Structures are given as structure tokens and as C-alpha cells.
User: Fold these one by one.
Assistant:
Number 1:
Amino acid sequence: MKMGAEEEDNQKSIPVLPWMRSPIDVSAVHECPLSLLPCIDPRLKVSLEKMGISSLFPVQLAVWQETVGPGGFERDLCVNSPTGSGKTLAYALPIVQMLSTRSVKCLRALVVLPTRDLALQVKEVFAAIAPAVGLSVGLAVGQSSIADEISELINRPKLELGVRFDPDDVFPELRSSVDILVATPGRLMDHINNTKGFTLEHLCYLVVDETDRLLREAYQSWLPTVLQITRPDDESFLPCAQNFLPSPFGSLKTIRRSGLERGFKGKSYPRLVKMVLSATLTQDPSKLAQLDLHHPLFLTTGQKRYQLPEKLQSYKLLCESKYKPLYLVGLLQSLGAEKCLIFTSSVESTHRLCTLLNSFDHLPFKIKEYSSLQRQSIRSKTLKAFRKGEIQVLVSSDAMTRGMDVEGVRNVINYDMPPYIKTYIHRAGRTARAGQNGCCFTLLRKEEVKRFNKLLRKAENNSCSKYSVPSSYIEPLHSIYESALEKLKETVEMETSRKRKR
């Protein structure tokens, strides 16, 4: 869902919270080799090296210092950092490190993301490091049936004949099979409301990734529900996260409340530690208030609110509306075999554009679409092929704009001009990730240029050069274009006819 024009236009009139006025600039932090990273579990170091990671990026090191390091999770963290700067590992690594210090099996960390595809990607990061320290990671996104998810998340131990559970046991018959859960809001609410044995009562860490989007969309009131479940009955908090985790040897006592568990025998209730992250973190106090943050610490990269990747080159390509697809094909040909991601304004536009491009004969690259019109299994298969390089050009709706990391995307093309600066930042952030070079091209009609320039000024970026496609690429396409339009018309008519018959 897009940010409303009124919200973005009125950002300057919204008062900024005091703690956001003096952020910690993580750009001043240098990368740190793993060999010099304090306190890291050697097993995690080995796992990171297997992933090809030899050092932490600035935002990752800054979060480590405020969690595992001297900061000790004493404050909730808000991270505003450009796409591709390494935010996922920034929270995954310290959470896994902290959970590994106690060997109790219950759900202690929850990561919430707005889309299935992004959740799958984040789960892969956790799954690459958590098993090394004996932790398990679950996924609740609706990719499989609810029954299959329950079987993965909830352990149903078999009882030996004549053996009965102690009613005072902290764990009832149904136990969590995972230490960390990566979830989308809708499926999370399904489990909270309907899954026996599923509880957030022992939750220590809550990560809200892509915060601005999750706060903008209600998603069945998932956030107030989670905060209510995890809020203590009294307000006595432990000051440090090292004491958050319960001992597995009888220190817990079950307190029944609405079918859920809560209680740390002989101890005050722990504070739920929150980490919120985005490349375009909202400054709206009314939205941030929903998170109920505890003395939040604001980490950001530089002093600009809207930031593009450091090594991104932006270009604008002027074209006639009638021949816009020709300019796009010419641009793709001029870029050669480089991996490209094309964004359109809607799922319908994505489908039509991909169909049109595939109607051009003998293009030297493979083109596929990626949108919410497709089943999850199809999207996953397409994304996998794109990552492998079996598909060179992917046409997408904004389903890909949030956090998705596809290695080797050299070019992003805005076939339709993004309506807001946040949309531009998230689209452009699919390239030039992790310090790599990348380009973002925006196709513009003459009447769109002024509005586009105004949009970029919100990111304090005036370095958008004009790009021209050589006429030698475009002229030969005119006759092919007419034929492609006829094929598109026939395809649309066939698809419409099939829908009517259903």
C-alpha cells in the first residue's frame, strides 16, 4: 500500500520527537573484521565466514555495540539506514548471540515483516546462523497450510504409558518447537487466536522490520495484540537483557491468563526489547507511539531523512508516451546482459508490460513477471531463477520494493514514475547494495520531469543525469512494435475470455 500524498507532503509540519533530534550517525563507524568483534560466539563467527562475511558493516557494528556490547539492550533501538546496508544481519546476529546463552526451548524472539517474500528472505538469514548455536527458526507466512505450520511450530511430545504431566510444569503438553519466529502479521494473528500451545508469553525480543509500512497498515491489530500479551501486569522491569532469559531448571511458574502463559518465579517481569528498522523510518509521533518504545535510541546513516545507496547512479530517460515500450526495449538492449529489475505502477501494468515485452521477437534476454497476481510458489520459483541468472529481466509491481535482496541486480528501471520519494528509495535500493555499484533509470514523459525533479529534491539528490538511448537501438523496433501490440491485444482477449468462463 502506498503512502498517502497528504502524509508525505505534510511531513515537515509534524513535530519531531526529542529522541529523534539527536541521532547517532553510524556512518562514522568503520567496518569491523569478525576477528576483532568483541564477545562474538566462535560458532557464529564460523557460520558468518561460511556465508562469505568477513566483517560487519557500520550499521551492523553499531547495533552490535548497543546490544551485545556496552549498550546491553538497555534501550529499544530505531534504525534508519539505506536499503542494502545490512539491516537484517544487524538484528539477527545479536539476537541469536543473546538467545544462545540459555538453553530453554520457548519462543523468545519474533520478527514481523509486511510480505511473505521478505519474511522468507529474513528467515534464510536466521537459518544460516541460528543452528550453529543450537537454536531453531520458524516461519509463519501462510506459504503452507496452517496445519503444516502448526506441526513445524508446536511440539507435541508423545506420552509414555502411565506418565502424566505435572500441572505446575511451566510447559503444558504443547511446547514451542522454535526459539525464533519470522512472521507476517496476518498469519501471526491466526496462530495467536487459534493455535493451541502457541504463546508469546516468553517473548524477549520483538523486531518490526519495514516499520513505516507495518505501522501504516492495521493488519488485524497485530501490534496492540502482541504488546498486550507481552506487557507485564506490573511495571517493574529488569534493566538489562542478560537477565531476561529464564533458567530451564524450574525458575518459571505457569500463570494461566486467557489460555496463555506468563510468569518468572521470584523475578520481576522482563521488558520486551524492541528493534524497529526501515530505510524510510517515519517521524510521525502518533505512529511511533504505537510501538510503546522504551527510552529509544535512534541510529541513522548521515543526517538526511531520505537516503539513497552511496554508489547509486540515477538517470532520467525522456520518451514519448506512445513509444515508451520502445525506449524500454532500447534501454534493455543498451545495457546488454546485465541483470535488470523493472518496476511498474500496478500488478495489472506488470502483467501487460511483461506480456508485451515477450511479444517482441528475438530479444537476447529472458523476461518474466513478478507480482501478487501470481501464486506464492510461482513467485518463489521466478525469484530463484532470477537470482541464478536464468532470468535476466524481471518485471515487478512494488511487491519487490521492500527489503528484497537479489544479488547482482545492476540496474533498476522505473517504467512508471514512482509517486513518492519513499517508493523511489525502496525501488532504487534493489541495486547498489552492500557497497556495490548500481544504476536506477526512470522513464519520463515531458510533463513528468518537473514533478520528478521535485521528488528527488526530498532526498537532497540533484545528481540525476539525462540518459539517451541510441537511435540505432530504437529505429529497427518500430515494425516489431506494431506486431507486438497485436499479439498483446490477442493475449488480453484470450485471458479475458478464460476469466469469463470460470
Number 2:
Amino acid sequence: MKVLVIILLLLCCVSPLKAVTIESCPLAIGSLLKTEVEETVTLTCKTDAGIEPSNSELQWFRNGARVNLAQENRQSRSNLCVQSVKKEDNGVVFTCQLKGDASVNGSIKFDVHYPPDLNDTKEVFVEEKDDVVLSCDVRANPPVALVWKRDGKVLDLTTGRYKATNNGITAELSIRKAERDVHQGTYVCEVTSSVYGVVSRTFTVTVEDRVLKFPVGPTIAGVVVVLCTIVLALISRRDKIIKCCKRN
């Protein structure tokens, strides 16, 4: 009985727990909020009953950088609106905290879904024996699976002087020393998304005859040298030239 009394007395002496909570639209799952590009997200931060009104001023931070809000939007309840969500907002963390006690805070992380920027066609012209690079923007969330095709078939990257690279942002197919019989055709950068399905970019590659390029620079330099030589020769023989002109 004495132990129970002591516990009750201790509970009475303990201050209410201080906390802030964040509500969102659309709803977050825990501290993760899934949204898409161009959508609008509203975040609402509230103080709990354990926080006195005089100490209830709130602050918002975006990845640690202070977000400036009107004074009337800081007391006990604070709203933050993110309009037209962008790709760059993926992974961003918004934190709401008490101005007077940074340890009392809550955070929410953005998980922005967006497809790769594809679905177009490009014409590519390359001279024989020149190198060419086909490039696709494959940046997406969630990440996509990529395959290169040529004339409707999956491209064999082990033959034909092909090299493929993919850093998660840009995928490239390099063709070294292009030949008409080997490399001319229709190439497709095809990506598959678990959310957005299949999208692609098509490249129509035309291998042209090699054009003999006229060496403009060296030719101009040669002409200048010849003209300078002629001028110097005329100057060195001007006396003879003048005498010949007078005789004539």
C-alpha cells in the first residue's frame, strides 16, 4: 500500500511530456510522405498540452535551413505549404521544433515519385569510323530497369564495339568507329518502372560516308607565308624594279 502511494505521488510531480506533432496532406506513413511531381503538400505542426502557450513558438527547417514564416503562423500551430513539388524535393526533410527548445521536434521526409524524361525520338548522323554516343535521362523514383534494343531486338553489348554505362541519372550507349553495315539502324533506350510502366527513347542512327575535310588552318597559314615571301622579295628588289620601269 505504501509503495502504491509513493508511485502516485511521483506521477503527480512529473511534468507533462513536451512534444510537437506533424500532420500532412496527403497523409504520411510514419515520418515518410509519398507524393508526386507538381502536387501540393500541406504540413501542419501542433504543440501538445504539456507546452505552455508562452513557450509555444514554432520554427520550420528544410534540410536544416530555416523557413521564414509570418509571426502569426508560429504560435502553437504552424502551417507550411509546399506548392508544385519538384524532383529536387525527393529526400528532403522538413523539421518543426520549438523555438525555445530544439530537442522538442518532429520531422517528415518527402518520397517524391516521378518517371524518367523520355518518350521521344532523335535522329543521329555519324560519319564512318567516327564515334557516337546515345544518351538517355533515366533519373526516376522509384528507380527503373534499363535495356538497350536495336531494330526491335535486345542489343548484344558483347559484340559490335558497344559500351553501355548507367549511373542512375544518365544511361549512355557508346559506339566506337561506326560502320554502316554494322551499326546503322534504330536503337531504343527502354526503361521499365514499377509505377509508370514502360517508357523509351528512340534513336535513328544513320552512318554517312566519310567526308575528306579540307585543312583550312594549315592552308591559310601557307598562303600567308607565300604572300609575305613575295612582298619581301619585291621590297628587296625595289631599286631594280624602279629602274626597269623608268627604262620602259
Number 3:
Amino acid sequence: MGVLKLSLFVLVLSGLLYIYKEYKRTENLQIPFDGRFHPDFKEVVNNFRENFESGIEIGASLSIFHEGKSLVDVWGGYADVTTKRPWTEDRLSILFSATKGVTALLIAVFVDKGWLDYKKPVAYYWPEFGENGKHEITVEMLLSHQGGLSITNGTFPIQWIEEQPEKVYRFLEQQTPYWKPGTAYYYHSITYGLFVDSLLAKADPKHRRVDQIFKEEIGDKFGIEFYNGLPYHLYYRTARYEPTPFTSVLWKTLTSLDFEPLLTRYKLMDPESIMGKSFISGTDAIPVDTAFNIPEYTKIPQSSLNGYSNARNLAKLYGIIANGGKNDEGTLLSEKIIQVLEEPLTSGVSLDGMTISNFGRGVIALIEDNQLIGIGHPGYGGQIAYADTRRKTGFAYVTSRIKEVRRGAFYEEVKQYRDIYYKCLKKHLQNKKA
């Protein structure tokens, strides 16, 4: 019996040592780091740099705009750890669900122009959408994940989005809400982009595709580089997407006793859970660990997850929103529409009983201690971009090494950068007055 216990102890200890070794295996890399920043915000930059040196960050960019001007624009680490290809100034990375927030701003531009109305039924712009119990779903209901369309009956090949869009429209038109629209909410993780991108194309006077709409209505006008679906000729600039090693998740769980990432993974893998069903809805199942490093997938526009940019461009975009909808290059949105975007439409626990989100009209109202700190959207594994209209700040963080899956907009490291920034901003504004 003693030998059995000893053997079990050695086995467990060996396993823990292996997990720890894998978790720390990138620690000794010589980390590149570069960028520019206002001296008053050196503490933010130092904190970001230290997290590369300690192995917390692997490859990422961080950018902050205030009153339409850049205060912090830094990047570091590796775009590909295996080849040690450095993260450079113009590096692009997949944004996952942070793409949803960018497209929500595009919808807001349409509302400002009178091409869409949040209160009108989606079927007003797309009559066939109203089939199968969807006639009462309004534009804002769809944008705030209240339409009951997170789970689909069957799937279709993702290539249809580019090659046969009419088949995509027909597939979406045939869907029946999973719950009565307007009575509950649940995150439309995959299907959001399918329905919203289709709505944009239907409402657009020129019937352009979502990627072209962004380029012509926002990108070219304001010098913001963002791609909904990455063109082949730009693939060389992307950071290689790397999911969090499971050993890292295990180690953090064992050392912190925080089981949320493991619970979330379990829900994702459970085909009977709402979360599990939603992640295999819409398009055919995508092999997450490999697909987002394959140009044939990355080139397809899909506003749920397939946007590409970096922190600089996202912070500039949200910085315009935070600055009253305008900067030196012009006006992007009216202040009236920005106020509408700040209004949350959901509260309380979602349909699965796990999530509490303040979804608005395509963006999330970021609320802490009962105070609105901004509007924006996070993305899988740590990506986030948001506008803090009260502090006139656009903030963005983008990484290629995806952190453990958890609920909430701000991961620990990103919240740290944000909080240090706010402290520095207070001193910065005092210095300007002096």
C-alpha cells in the first residue's frame, strides 16, 4: 500500500512539474518591444513591458487615444513564437468578437444616415427575414442578442458567404427563434455576424458587402485599417493565432483555485448546453485551433469573429467615438447616436443562467460599481476595444496568444493597464492645467 501511495505521489508530482514547465517554457525568450508614448504615461508602458519579460504576454499591442490624439502606442513580443517572428508596428491580428463592436459602429453610421432605424423590424429592410416567427424582431433586438437566433437548425459551408450569398440569405430566412424574441437574451456568438452582415447588405442603398461598407464609410475617410475578412495579399502581416495551452489553464487553475475557465470550456464542449449548441451553429464547424491560421478561412468576412486589425487602429476608431464622434478628419457619428449606443438593453442573467451582460445596440455597456465606464466589445481570449466618453478615451488591446476562456470584458492584465492609465491620465490633466 505504501508503494502504491508513493507511486501515485510521484505521478502527480511529475504531472504538476510537466504542467509548470509547459506553462513557463517561453519565459527565457529575448522579447522585442517598441512603440511611442507620452512621458506622462510611462507607467502604463512599463507595466506592459514587464508582462512580456515575465512571460504573461507573448505577443500583443496596446494603444490609447485621448481627445482624438495618441497617448500610448506600443507593441511587443512575437507574432509567431515558433519562428520567433517579432510583433512589428503594422502587425495585424484576429479580433474574434471585438469585430462585433466595430460592425455595431457601422450600423450606427447607417442609422445616422437614415438608412436604418433601430426601432423598425428587420423585415422592413429584408422582408423574407420575417418568415418562421421572426417578423417582430427589431433591428435593436437583433443587435442586443434578444432575437432568439443564437442556435440554428443545421449549418452551411462558410465559403457560401463569399461564393453564394443568396444561399446564406435563404438559410437565415428559414431559421426559427430558439426562444420568443424579446423575452430573454443569450449571446449570438457565431450567428450575430451572419444576420447583421446580411441586414447591412439589404439596407445599404448600394447593397455592398460588409467589408466594402466599412472601407468606404469609415476606413478610407478616417485612415483606420480594419479588415472584415483579411485579403490574401495581407496575410503575411498577421500574427499567428495561438490558443492557450491547456497546461497553462490547468496550472493557473491549480494555483488560483479559479475554476471558471475550466467550467466555461466544459460548457463549450457540451453539445447539449446552449453555449455548446451556439458554437456549432450557423456555418459548418470550424477547427478553432487551426482554421484561423489558414488564408482560405481568414479571408471570409464574418462580423461575429473574423475581423483583423491592431490596437492602434481600434483605439483611434473608439477614440473618435469618445471624442464626441469626431476628430480632425471629420465627423463619424452624431453625439445623439453615441448617447443611444450607451444605453443598455439587457440586464440580469442570460438564458443559460451563467452570463450577466449589459448588451446595447451591438456594443456592450461596460459597467463597474454601477458606473458606466465605456461602450465597446471584447473578443475571445482577451481582445478588447472601447470608448470611454466621460474621459474622452479610446482604449484597445489585441493579442495573438489567446488567454484562458472566461466571462467578462476585462481580463486581469488588461484591467491593470486600464487602471494605471486612468491614474496617469489624472496626473496628466493636472500637469496640463499647471
